[in-house]
């Protein structure tokens, strides 16, 4: 790895230029700038679409914990009595009682375009005037985790939109990755990490998806697979209407605990060997587990077939990178890879490090041989 550094952190963001500035009757701070979508612009530079989690400095006031919520008439602070919630996690609070998990957030996420040099090693410009913020009721708790794919002459960006109505996947489209149009919901409740392939297969758009649930059926005892969240596939005639593929995609492997939970990372890109896709696997540990990045190459005509993969991780969390930010750290053991761009003999890979900052890594093409 010839380059492996943090390129954008909460300290690089001008809070006065936040789209929430002056619109909330409370002090906020930047919890994290992380999980950036990545693509190359027409001018040759790279664009990161950075998730900014803007949080309340003091979420608990007068015996109530507050959530930030967008509405058509502005931003609101919703108070919840402390006796009704669990506030153990600084990022969220859980409602007590009931037959299922219900949570709210003490932060709201929006997306910030950050332009990098062509090699991804330095920031050229931060486009506050192009920030993407909630614009519909189904986004009232925020817009999260952009993934950008270029298919033909269009850029397609999937995001997670969060609300009490649903935890859905939404699609934005653009002719230039600068002016984005919200196309609406394309996948419904808790189908996260949707990654659109950078190219069509037999005239159709393809995507990786990751539906979540709280019940999975067991594989046979001698199966190479473990039941749990997996990376599924879907196809579409227009990138708006998606049909799940009948065959499974990438599944948790019984031979390693590092994929006990897994999900998509980077939009699959076509190589000479097939579709290269980077994804995350989570080893159970502590509160959230250890997030690492893995890779697979999928058949160019049938992406349900894995041509090549490895159990060894491609990227691991790098605590030395976040050491200068140790006073801001609230989570560790996480690298969450979200973007990839070709650059000759290597790839430029974008990740969120510790749910805190944007990490750029150069990885040689020979790493996938």
TrEMBL record:
GO terms for molecular function: hydrolase activity, acting on glycosyl bonds. Pfam families: Glyco_hydro_130. InterPro entries: Glyco_hydro_beta-prop_sf (IPR023296), Mannoside_phosphorylase (IPR007184). Keywords: Glycosidase, Glycosyltransferase, Hydrolase, Transferase. SUPFAM superfamilies: Arabinanase/levansucrase/invertase (SSF75005). Belongs to the glycosyl hydrolase 130 family. This is Glycosidase. It comes from Sphingomonas mollis.
């Amino acid at each position: 790895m010839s380059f492996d550094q943090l390129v954008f952190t909460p300290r690089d963001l001008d809070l006065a230029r936040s789209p929430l500035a002056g619109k909330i009757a409370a002090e906020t701070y930047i919890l994290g700038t992380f999980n950036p979508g990545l693509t190359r612009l027409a001018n040759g530079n790279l664009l990161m679409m950075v998730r900014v989690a803007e949080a309340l400095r003091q979420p608990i006031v007068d015996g109530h914990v507050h959530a930030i919520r967008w509405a058509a008439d502005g931003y609101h602070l919703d108070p919840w009595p402390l006796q009704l919630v669990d506030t153990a996690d600084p990022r969220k609070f859980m409602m007590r009682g009931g037959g299922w998990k219900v949570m709210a957030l003490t932060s709201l996420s929006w997306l910030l375009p950050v332009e990098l040099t062509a090699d991804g090693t330095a920031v050229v410009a931060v486009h506050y005037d192009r920030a993407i913020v909630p614009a519909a009721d189904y986004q009232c708790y925020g817009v999260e985790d952009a993934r950008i794919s270029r298919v033909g002459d269009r850029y397609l960006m999937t995001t997670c939109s969060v609300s009490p109505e649903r935890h859905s996947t939404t699609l934005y489209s653009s002719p230039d990755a600068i002016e984005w149009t919200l196309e609406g919901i394309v996948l419904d409740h808790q189908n996260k990490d949707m990654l659109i392939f950078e190219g069509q297969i037999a005239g159709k758009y393809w995507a990786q998806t990751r539906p979540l649930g709280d019940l999975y059926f067991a594989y046979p005892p001698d199966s190479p697979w473990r039941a749990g969240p997996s990376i599924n596939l879907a196809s579409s005639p227009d990138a708006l209407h998606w049909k799940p593929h009948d065959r499974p995609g990438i599944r948790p492997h019984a031979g390693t605990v590092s994929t006990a939970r897994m999900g998509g990372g980077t939009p699959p890109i076509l190589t000479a060997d097939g579709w290269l896709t980077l994804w995350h696997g989570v080893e159970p540990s502590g509160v959230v587990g250890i997030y690492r990045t893995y890779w697979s190459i999928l058949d160019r005509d049938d992406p349900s077939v894995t041509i090549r993969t490895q159990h060894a991780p491609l990227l691991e969390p790098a605590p030395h990178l976040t050491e200068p930010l140790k006073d801001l750290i609230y989570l560790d053991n996480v690298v969450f890879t979200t973007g990839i761009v070709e650059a000759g003999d290597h790839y430029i890979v974008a990740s969120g490090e510790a749910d805190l900052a944007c990490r750029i890594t150069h990885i040689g093409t020979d790493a996938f041989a």
